[in-house]
From TrEMBL:
Pfam families: Zn_clus. One of its GO terms (molecular function) is DNA-binding transcription factor activity, RNA polymerase II-specific. This is Zn(2)-C6 fungal-type domain-containing protein. Residues 8-38 form the Zn(2)-C6 fungal-type domain. Gene3D superfamilies: Zn(2)-C6 fungal-type DNA-binding domain. The keyword Transcription regulation applies. InterPro entries: Zn2-C6_fun-type_DNA-bd_sf, Zn2Cys6_DnaBD. Keywords: Metal-binding, Nucleus, Transcription, Transcription regulation, Zinc. SMART domains: GAL4.
Length: 304
């Protein structure tokens, strides 16, 4: 009879995240120092096992007690052999409800296109075998401030948009990133204070932003600030970044609402997209910047 199956641990079930079901702790609980508790087997399975074990126990009890010492000695090696087998680690006790897993499979899928109401809660924590990919992605995020300083763009900030509109939030964040790249032990408090001052200003600017480009540039600047704070390694900066997460989520939702209108305009002028400098090409650059900014924000949230 095959061994029973194990369900995801209680912590992963509560947070609706995928569990690798490792023992004694799954990967997610181990990296977050959470208590990893797996649900016990069902009552039906326990009763079935008990009923099956009952005849065996009865047979053992009814063994003839009048056996001789020689007979006891002859079975001693078998008893030792069984004890050695019991000392081996047991096969993992998986208890997975495949019907439920298949029914809710869409909860673990990553969509190719983002909808206005999508959230980062649909992100999946990768298992330990994906650790290299996670580390690589984090290193890429950490390189964004330097990339912006050296090249004037990062994967979610299009150089063409910056050059045409020259939004103030991006010009300011360019200076902040340049200052951060020169951070040292002697000036880090000055750097952190400067970042904090601009972050406070950026919150007000973002709330008042009305046009697509103003809101987009403000969110892009805020993402870079969050990258610096979350991945710098300073505990205080990380705590400050966590305190503004609620505000940041609301801003991203606003930006997602803008995506649909811009994408509709891009589809109407799709025949002109191959001509750099045309209105359609500029509109596509803005639409793609919106899409990449939202994706980058969710990736950062999911990784952290």
């Amino acid at each position: 009879m095959p061994p029973p199956y194990r369900q995801a641990c209680a912590a992963c079930i509560k947070s609706k995240r995928r569990c690798d079901m490792a023992v004694p702790k799954c990967y997610r609980c181990r990296v977050r120092s959470l208590e990893c508790l797996y649900p016990s087997p069902s009552t039906r399975r326990t009763l079935a096992q008990n009923s099956k074990a009952l005849p065996q126990e009865t047979a053992r009890i009814t063994v003839n007690e009048s056996q001789t010492e020689s007979q006891n000695a002859s079975i001693a090696p078998d008893i030792t052999f069984d004890a050695d087998n019991l000392a081996l680690p047991p096969f993992p006790d998986y208890d997975l409800d495949w019907q439920e897993a298949m029914t809710n499979l869409n909860d673990f899928l990553v969509p190719d296109l983002l909808n206005p109401h999508d959230t980062a809660e649909r992100s999946v924590l990768a298992g330990e075998k994906y650790q290299r990919r996670i580390v690589y992605t984090i290193e890429q995020f950490k390189s964004y401030p330097k990339q912006l300083v050296l090249h004037g763009q990062v994967p979610f900030i299009h150089r063409r948009v910056v050059e045409k509109y020259l939004p103030k939030p991006l010009t300011r964040i360019l200076a902040i990133c340049a200052l951060y790249e020169r951070k040292s032990e002697t000036n880090q408090q000055l750097v952190y204070s400067t970042i904090q001052q601009y972050a406070d200003e950026l919150i007000d600017v973002t709330q008042l932003a009305d046009s697509d480009i103003d809101l987009l540039s403000s969110v892009q600047a805020f993402i870079l600030i969050q990258i610096i704070r979350l991945l710098d390694g300073d505990i205080r900066q990380r705590a400050i970044a966590e305190n503004v997460e609620t505000f940041f989520v609301n801003v991203i939702r606003r930006l997602q609402q803008r995506m649909s209108s811009v994408e509709d305009s891009t589809q109407i002028m799709s025949s002109q997209l191959r001509t750099p400098g045309s209105d359609a090409w500029e509109t596509w650059s803005l639409a793609e910047s919106l899409r990449r900014t939202v994706i980058t924000r969710y990736c950062l949230h999911g990784l952290y």
